[in-house]
Structures are given as C-alpha cells and as structure tokens.
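**Paired protein data**
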Amino acid sequence: MTEYQLKDREKAILRFVIHQFILTANPVGSRNVSKKYDLGLSPASIRNVMADLEEMGLLDHPHTSAGRVPTDKGYRVYVDSLMDPPVIDISAKKIVDENLTLQNETEELLKITSAILSDLTNQLALVTYPRFEQAELEKIQLVKLTSKRILVVVSVKSGLIKTITLEVDAEVKEEQLSSIQQILNERLCGLKFSEIRATFQERVKDISSEKYRPIIRVFLDSVDKIFTDTKSVDKTFIAGTKKMLTHPEFFDHEKFQSVIELVENKDIIIHVLDKNKEEAKSDLAISIGQENKDEKLSDYSMISKEYKIGDLTGTLGIMGPKRMDYSKIIAAVVYIAEQLTEELTKQR
C-alpha cells in the first residue's frame, strides 16, 4: 500500500490515530477521534474509514479492544508523508550547542553526545566510534617498549590514532625501528586500511636484511590486526536504558528483559544499524519494526544518521518502541549529527 493511493480522509484519520496512539499508548476508537479532532465526520463514518485502513494493513485491531493501533506499514506511511516536518526547538538546540563545545577529547565528546541524545528523545541512544576502514594512513610510528616489545602508533588523516603492542622474536634496537618506520611510511602512507591489508606482503617482500626481518615478520603476522577496524564496536556509547524502560511497552517483564539483553549484546544493534544504513537512500536511516534485519528488534524503531570526522564516518541514533514522536526525534538526531560533525571538524 503506497501513500498516494490513500484518500484525504484516510490520510487524516490515519494521522490522527497515530498521533493519539503516540500520546496515550492505548488503542484509538472512532469516538475518540471524533471528539478530539474536528473532521466533520460522524463516529460511524470514521469507524468505516478505520476499517478500510485496517484492510489495507495500516491499522490493527487488538482483540481485547474496540480501538485500533498502527501497524509497521501504518507507521511507515506516517513517517514518509503524514507527520509534521522535523524541526528541533530552540531550547533543545541550546542544550546541544552548550554541551558539545565543552569536550575536547573525541571519546568524551561521543560519550556526552549519546547522553544528550537520550535526554532529548527519552529513548536509548547510541553513538559508534568513527570507522577506520576507509581511512587513509597518515603515518606509522614505532616505539620501543622493552627489548622485545614495540608499540605501533597508526595515525589516519582525520586526526584519529590507533595503537597496538607487538611482541618481536628477537631483540629490537632503536636504529632498526627508525629505519623500518621510514620504510613503512614511504610505502604505506596515503593508502586505505583495506588496501594495506591486501598488498602489504607485496610491498615489503624486497626487505631482506637480516636485522629487519624479525620486525617485518611480526608485521606480516599482525597486518590484519593492525589495519582492521575493531574500535567502532568496542567503543560504542549507549545511554538511556532506564529512560526506555519507563515506556509502557516495557512494563512486561519479558520485554523488559529483552531490552537489557540487547544493551548487553550491543553488536546486534550495531549490525542492524549498519544494515539499515546500507539500505537507506540517504545518510538518515529510519527502520520500523520488522524492517529491522533482526527478529529481536521487531518491536523497535531505529533512527540513525552518519556523522563525519575528516574522511571517516560514525553513526549516531536512537532505538525505542515503535510508538514514538518520530518528527521530534528525527529532528534531534539530524541536528546532533550535524553539530557533532562540526565540532569534530573544529578539533582536527
């Protein structure tokens, strides 16, 4: 069922039913719509239209109630064409602007962003660490920690840094590290992580000197670990679990438990965020109920948007019950993503 096939009165009643359900969390009856909204239609006429909307799969009729509730399809039509335009209010803007400028460290900034987003939306908020996968290498630094341990510091052009400690089979000298560091920078700088992983062996195969071989060998053994993006999952900031549990949808113990399990196993949420982003037509992704690519998330809606730091991108968004104020939440997600991008760009 597509939006343009709906008549004006069907659009109006679907919109009002969803508005009322968002406000009350209770099934909406025709008499309620008739009293609350001036449609110029009798309760009987409204009831007939609601029955038509139910036939189209846009409303559902819980067996314990005379009222209707929106389906996933109904919410989709509402989000795509019937809700108010997303506009963030001045007080919310002020909260975002004042708090984001207080942080200088990237991780602290992402952490406070998740808290602000949760506070403004009353939902579970998530902010993923920027993805290194498509980042261009700016430089590698090798630091001697002990006679057989070295610290590899990988800097990308966005200004972010990744570090990893490697164990070498032979004793390492400062002059060896200095020479290898220079060689690696000459051959790898400007390449993406994926390119480095694919071509590293070819790029260092001519380094045959005995004194360099132990260090090159450990790099060959560890290239996937050094140049793989693991931080974005490990450093995903989640805020607002308690807020989400205050919604009526989660008063049931089983649903309450499912939220806790999702938060503890956040890679499920991140995987679905990534899938939604891939399928979205823009960098704003909205998935409702069964549109989410995991059965565990079929009772939730997710709204997410990319933010940028140089050539890297991360994702911020919310997860909550399908019964949410979509317009208000979309406005908050979009504005905070834009301000986060701006703040991270300033700090580079």
Remarks:
- The two ends are 47 Å apart (CA to CA).
- Residues 302 and 320 are 7 Å apart (CA to CA).
- Strands lie at 59-60, 69-70, 124-127, 137-144, 149-156, 161-167, 237-239, 284-288, 300-309, 312-321.
